[in-house]
Structures are given as structure tokens and as C-alpha cells.
């Protein structure tokens, strides 16, 4: 849920930032527009200079060059109305402009329009100077306001700005809450998928399509999970059944081979052949047992009998079993169990851990046919207890060391059979791990790491 809140918070902040940015852009645009389109207005005061440039010489009016340039830059026509209302001078005067005006006519157009021409007027010594702009070029409207209203304009603008900011923030909050309401079911559905829980999300609204896809995905995952469970169960049962069916005829083969091996009436060569048959039958029986155990460990079908045992006593028992079974001369087995190793108590399935240690010792014997010295030891570090099986043989293949962390079981199967796979799976169900290492000088170490 924290990640969803984080997404919503960022969405609210982003929306608020966008809204405030739009307010700032609008203000900047309005300010720019005011400066741009009001920038030419001060030039209108040049009408006084134009009026001063219109002179009367012996009854003839003339506009000096400077005034003419200013007029042509801003206006399209000009006229001078005498005190009797008659036009006494004009320049570019349109045909639809009258040549005589009454006092009422002057009052009506002086501040507005004359025949749709925006006009500006200025007092001249000989009358009234009228300057005309092109039609539809200037908008004129009389705005009248009290001093009190004008004095409150700054406060009104500030309040309007604050209102815009508050509205933007409220909009961002509303959109964030709306998004949270819409996304929360989807978030809960996504988090429920790894738990293999069925989904029934509502498929209406803007997120309906995504919800529908999640519901369908949930159904597919559940079906696949059920199929995998059935397949795994069938595989485990099949392996267990095959193992059981093989044991009976295999026991008979081993029994008859043992009788032939001990039959003194047979030649030595035939007794030796019977011995080979018995040994290989025992090997097949061990492989079938390993296959059955590996399958149960993989699918968590192997029952665990947890008990508190001493690691030192555990490795001593494994060593005694090997010695009593007759460890041949090229091999030796030693124990390194200090007084400190007697103290820690390990919660584990003793039979499975003994099996793991037995597999590791068998692996050292099988891959070092010329003999090697094997050592069992127990060490304790911060937060873990480690049981090691070391030898001074030829060591592990480099690819096995390289893939020790995320071990590829096909690699183990190809080089070391089921023995190391069983070791790895035994440690996995105990919540620990196995680490394979080659020693600097010679030999290797397999470490069973238990998290305490």
C-alpha cells in the first residue's frame, strides 16, 4: 500500500504543479499582451506635436515634414474644423466625411467615432484638429468607475490569484483522491496474484478493462497452479510406485547373487561375476532410493522430524558409521569438533542431515579413486552454524563452483548424480544453503550453512 500512496502523492504534486504552472503562464501571457498592445498608446500623445506642426501662413495651412511623418505613421486622414464649423484644412479626407459640423456633431464624435472612423481630437489655435484612424482598427469604450472601486483593484487581483491557486490545489487533491479510489482495487488485485488468490475486481469505470484482464489472469494462474500441483503429485506418486515395484525383484536378484557368490561349488570366476551382480544391484537400489527421496524433497512430500541435536555428536555418529562399515585404506576420515562445537544445539531432521553428510563423503570417495583424506568439522559464526566436509582430492569442477549460488541441478546431475542434488534440497527445506569451494592448495570443501 505504501507504493500506491507514493504514486498518488506524486500524482497530486504533479497535478498541482501543472495547475500552478498554467496559472503562471496565463498571468505571463496577460502581462505580455497588455504591454504589447498598449505599447503604441503613448504615441497617440504625438497629436499635440502634429497640431503644432500645422501652421497658417497668410491664410494657407501647411503641415511641416516632421508632423506629416508622425501623422502618416499613425493616422490615415486629418482635418481642421474652424470656429464656424466649416472644414478649413484637410489631408486625405475620405469622401464620406462631412465638411461642416455643428456643436452637437463635434460633441458626438470627439471621443468616439466619426462615420465608423476612430478619431482623436486636439485643440488648435484656429479651431479643432481631428485625426482619423482606419475603420475597425481601434476599439473605444467608455469605462467609468469610482475611486473606491479603483483602489480595490490590487486587492481584487491578489484575491483572484489566491483563488486560482487554491482552486488548482483542490483540483489536484480531487484528482489524486479519485485516482486513488480507482487504482486501489487494481493494486490489491496485483498484490493478491502472487498469493494465488482468486480475483473478482469490478469491471466498470475507467479501469474496468484492466480489472477484467487481472480477473482473467487470476483464473489462468489458478488453473496453472492446479495443473502443476496435479502434475507434481502424479510425478511423485509415479516415482514412489516405480521405486516400490523395483525393490521386490531387485531384492530377489541381490539374494540369488549373494547365494551364488558364497557357493563354493562354483568356479572363482563365476563367484566374482555373482559378486559384481550383487554390487551393481545394490547400486541400483541406492539410486532408486535417491530418486524417490529427491522427488519427495522437491515437492515437499518428505515428512520432517525436527529435533534438537548437537552438531558435534552428529558428525561423530556419521564418522563412526563409515568407519564401522569398513573405510578402505586409501581413505581416512577425521573429525574437527572443538569444545565450542558441543555447545550449539541444531534444530533439524537428524536423519536427513546425516544423509546429506553421507552423500558428501561418498562424493569425495567416488571422485578420488586413488584415495584422499576427508575431514568433518563444525564452526559457528555470527548468525549461522556451518558443518563442513573437506577433502584433499582433485576438487570440484570450475562450473560447479561458478554456479554454486544459483545452482543448476542439471549440472549437478551430470557430474555428481543425485547425491549433491539431495544435499541441496535437504538444506533448502531446512532454510539453509550449501556452498561448494575449492581449497587454495588442493582439495575442496562443501559447507552446510544453517541460519540460527
UniProtKB/TrEMBL annotation:
Domain of life, per lineage: Bacteria
Compartment list: Membrane
UniProt protein name: histidine kinase
Domain Histidine kinase: 241-452
Pfam families noted in UniProt: HATPase_c, HisKA
Database matches in InterPro entries: BphY/WalK/GraS-like, HATPase_C_sf, HATPase_dom, His_kinase_dom, HisK_dim/P_dom, HisK_dim/P_sf, Sig_transdc_His_kin-like_C
Entry's EC annotation: 2.7.13.3
Keywords, ordered alphabetically: ATP-binding, Kinase, Membrane, Nucleotide-binding, Phosphoprotein, Transferase, Transmembrane, Transmembrane helix, Two-component regulatory system
Transmembrane segments: 156-180
PROSITE patterns: HIS_KIN (PS50109)
Amino acid at each position: 500500500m505504501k507504493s500506491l500512496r507514493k504514486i498518488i502523492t506524486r500524482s497530486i504534486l504533479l497535478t498541482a504543479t501543472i495547475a500552478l504552472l498554467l496559472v503562471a503562464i496565463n498571468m505571463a501571457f496577460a502581462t505580455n499582451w497588455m504591454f504589447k498592445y498598449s505599447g503604441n498608446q503613448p504615441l497617440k500623445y504625438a497629436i499635440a506635436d502634429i497640431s503644432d506642426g500645422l501652421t497658417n501662413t497668410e491664410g494657407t495651412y501647411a503641415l511641416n515634414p516632421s508632423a506629416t511623418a508622425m501623422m502618416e505613421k499613425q493616422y490615415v486622414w486629418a482635418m481642421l474644423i474652424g470656429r464656424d464649423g466649416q472644414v478649413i484644412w484637410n489631408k486625405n479626407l475620405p469622401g464620406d466625411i462631412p465638411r461642416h459640423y455643428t456643436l452637437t456633431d463635434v460633441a458626438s464624435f470627439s471621443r468616439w467615432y466619426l462615420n465608423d472612423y476612430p478619431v482623436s481630437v486636439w485643440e488648435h489655435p484656429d479651431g479643432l484638429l481631428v485625426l482619423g484612424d482606419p475603420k475597425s482598427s481601434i476599439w473605444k469604450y467608455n469605462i467609468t468607475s469610482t475611486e473606491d472601486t479603483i483602489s480595490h483593484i490590487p486587492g481584487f487581483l491578489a484575491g483572484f490569484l489566491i483563488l486560482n491557486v487554491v482552486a488548482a490545489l483542490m483540483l489536484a487533491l480531487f484528482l489524486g483522491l479519485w485516482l486513488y479510489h480507482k487504482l486501489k482495487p487494481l493494486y490489491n488485485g496485483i498484490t493478491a496474484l502472487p498469493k494465488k488468490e482468486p480475483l473478482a475486481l469490478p469491471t466498470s469505470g475507467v479501469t474496468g478493462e484492466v480489472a477484467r484482464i487481472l480477473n482473467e489472469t487470476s483464473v489462468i494462474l489458478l488453473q496453472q497452479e492446479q495443473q502443476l500441483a496435479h502434475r507434481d503429485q502424479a510425478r511423485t506418486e509415479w516415482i514412489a510406485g516405480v521405486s516400490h515395484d523395483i525393490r521386490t525383484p531387485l531384492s530377489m536378484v541381490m539374494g540369488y547373487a549373494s547365494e551364488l557368490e558364497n557357493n563354493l561349488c562354483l568356479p572363482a570366476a563365476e563367484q566374482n561375476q555373482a559378486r559384481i551382480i550383487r554390487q551393481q544391484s545394490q547400486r541400483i537400489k541406492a539410486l532408486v532410493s535417491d530418486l524417490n527421496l529427491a522427488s519427495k524433497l522437491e515437492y515437499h512430500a518428505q515428512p520432517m522430524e525436527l529435533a534438537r541435536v548437537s552438531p558435534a555428536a552428529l558428525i561423530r555418529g556419521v564418522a563412526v558409521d563409515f568407519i564401522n562399515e569398513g573405510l578402505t585404506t586409501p581413505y581416512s576420515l577425521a573429525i574437527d569438533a572443538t569444545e565450542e562445537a558441543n555447545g550449539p544445539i541444531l534444530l533439524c531432521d537428524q536423519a536427513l542431515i546425516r544423509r546429506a553428510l553421507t552423500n558428501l563423503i561418498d562424493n569425495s570417495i567416488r571422485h578420488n579413486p586413488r584415495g584422499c583424506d576427508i575431514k568433518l568439522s563444525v564452526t559457528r559464526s555470527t548468525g549461522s552454524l556451518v558443518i563442513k566436509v573437506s577433502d584433499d582430492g582433485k576438487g570440484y569442477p570450475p562450473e560447479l563452483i561458478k554456479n554454486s549460488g544459483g545452482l543448476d541441478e542439471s549440472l549437478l546431475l551430470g557430474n555428481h548424480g543425485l547425491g549433491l542434488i539431495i544435499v541441496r534440497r535437504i538444506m533448502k527445506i531446512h532454510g539453509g544453503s550449501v556452498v561448494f569451494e575449492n581449497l587454495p592448495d588442493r582439495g575442496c570443501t562443501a559447507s552446510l550453512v544453517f541460519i540460527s
